[in-house]
Design brief:
The protein has three domains: 5-79; 87-106 and 230-346, no CATH class; 114-219. The longest helix is centred in the first third of the chain and has 43 residues, at 41-83. The chain has helices at residues 11-31, 41-83, 87-107, 116-140, 142-145, 153-166, 173-179, 185-205, 230-248, 255-267, 271-281, 288-291, 315-319; strands spanning 109-110, 114-115, 208-212, 215-219. The chain is mainly alpha-helical. 59% of the residues lie in helices and 4% in strands. Helix 4 (116-140) packs across helix 6 (153-166) and helix 4 crosses helix 11.
């Protein structure tokens, strides 16, 4: 950082010592016969003493002034660092968060049967099964549908996701009961009983089949379903949320730069990770994502594979198609495939074009 012109010493400050030095040299001449021949050693010593003392005082003054200016510069620098974070700090911290996110994904392991990003494919299918089973049980409970236990689409999503997340009779069972205590308990008991039966059937056959809009949804997992994923997903979602919040809250970067940072973070998410993030946000566990408008204003789900989000509240119905700036929220569209036929079972999690 350079010192401004207002911080430089005035011209008079520099001229004063020079003029003073000349005066000290001329005083002996003015007081004598104005000839150098009349100077003896005593006279020279008498002149040199004050001159040397003056030079010492001048150097002391200049050293003091330089230290004073250095203190001012340090004070200004500290203020700038405190009030306006350097961009390189944001970049360094952001890429540290990216590394931690990748580590969190790598650490996800479901009983050594599914790990990393592939685990999200299994978890997505398991969650969808939880939702479809609740729908089926609810359809059979006609007395509930006509009474106080009428469920909204958000209720279906909330109940099924909480059970998927917490698991059946797991260590978080008390918390599960607390989160769903407002719903009709006869429906909840019937729902949990149905999941337990399907869990047992999966142990026997290795497959679960449930009705899905006139067809059959088949769930094949290498691990025991409905045991909960809180220990795997809790830290993952917390860290991902804090990473987005870190970028959004930075006052030292522009809105355009924030989007570029979050675009890099979004690129780390597979299609099924974005699917699970969307459905998580529709529940009491993940509502801050919607409250902070991270999906709309910052388009964190732009690469969401819409054809797979075919149950519950559809993303375009929930979030719309454009944000307040008129920017498209989703890049995925069956029309982009033109004459190609899309098969959800063949989706491998890759993005359409990465924009």
């Amino acid at each position: 950082m350079q010192i401004s012109s207002g911080q430089k010493p005035d011209f008079v400050i520099w001229c004063f010592p020079v003029i003073g030095f000349l005066i000290l040299c001329l005083i002996p001449l003015l007081l004598s016969d104005n000839t150098f021949e009349s100077f003896d050693k005593a006279t020279i010593a008498g002149i040199a003493g004050p001159v040397i003392a003056f030079i010492a005082a001048l150097l002391t003054f200049l050293a003091f002034w330089a230290q004073l200016q250095a203190n001012k510069v340090n004070s200004i620098t500290d203020e700038i660092t405190e009030n306006n974070e350097p961009v390189n700090y944001t970049e360094n911290r952001f890429y540290e968060l990216i590394k931690l996110h990748r580590a969190n994904v790598s650490d996800i392991n479901i009983t050594d049967k599914a790990s990393g990003r592939k685990a999200f494919i299994s978890m997505f299918n398991e969650f969808k099964c939880c939702y479809l089973v609740l729908r089926s049980v609810y359809a059979e409970q006609k007395e509930i549908k006509s009474g106080q236990g009428i469920l909204s689409e958000q209720d279906f999503m909330n109940i099924s996701y909480i059970i998927f997340f917490m698991g059946l009779n797991g260590p978080a069972s008390d918390l599960t009961q607390e989160l769903i205590k407002q719903y009709d308990q006869s429906l909840i008991e019937k729902y949990l009983s149905s999941l337990k039966k399907l869990q047992k059937k999966h142990g026997e056959d290795g497959i679960i089949q449930v009705p899905e809009q006139g067809s059959i949804f088949s769930l094949k997992l290498k691990y025991k379903p409905f045991c909960g994923h809180m220990s795997r997903l809790e830290q993952y979602y917390r860290h991902l949320f804090q990473s987005v919040k870190f970028v959004v809250d930075r006052d030292s970067i522009s809105a355009k730069e924030k989007y570029q940072f979050l675009k890099i973070l979004r690129a780390q998410l597979s299609g099924h990770e974005q699917l699970m993030l969307y459905y998580n946000s529709l529940t009491t566990l993940g509502k801050p994502w919607l409250e902070n408008k991270y999906f709309t204003e910052y388009r964190m789900l732009k690469n969401l594979p819409l054809p797979l989000a075919d149950f519950g509240e559809k993303p375009k119905d929930k979030l719309g198609e454009k944000n307040s700036k008129g920017e498209a929220l989703f890049e995925w569209d069956e029309i982009s495939f033109r004459n190609k036929v899309f098969h959800p079972g063949r989706y491998n999690g890759n993005r359409v074009n990465g924009k």
